[in-house]
Amino acid sequence: MNVRLLEVAQQELDEAVTTEPNELMREIHDRMPVIVKVGDYGTWLDPANHDLAALRQLISPYLSERIEAYAVQRDASNPKNEGAEMIARAE
Question: In the chain, N or C terminus with fewer CB closer than 10 Å?
């Protein structure tokens, strides 16, 4: 990917990569964001990597035991709202 194309992609794309939900998230939604482990960043971000089997393994649902789910404020569902308070636990 050349630099100009990357600049355009960063300016014009606002996408999240999702996968099927793990057991915890399945109770909440029919999909979840892909969470790439730090040790896999190089594989995930390498533009020369065309190993589809390896890349598919990286987009599998993250382990339920490694994440936590809790209610947040209703305002968090509006993408115009930003800030750390959007991920604070709802009272």
Answer: C
Q: Could you tell me the CA-to-CA distances from 14 to 47, 79, 91 in Å, in that order?
A: 19, 11, 30
Bigger pLDDT: 16 vs 89: 89
Per residue, the 3-state secondary structure of 23-69, as one string, reads HHHHCCCCCEECCCCHHHHHHHHCCCCCCHHHHHHHCCCCCHHHCCC
Residue 8: predicted pLDDT? 52
- pLDDT, one tens digit per residue, over 6-17 is 455 555 556 788
Helix (H) or strand (E) holding 15: none
CB 88 within 8 A of CB 47: no
Residues 24 and 18: their CA atoms lie apart, in Å, by 15
pTM of the model: 0.68
The candidate with the shortest Cα–Cα distance to 61, out of 24, 16, 15, 14, is 24
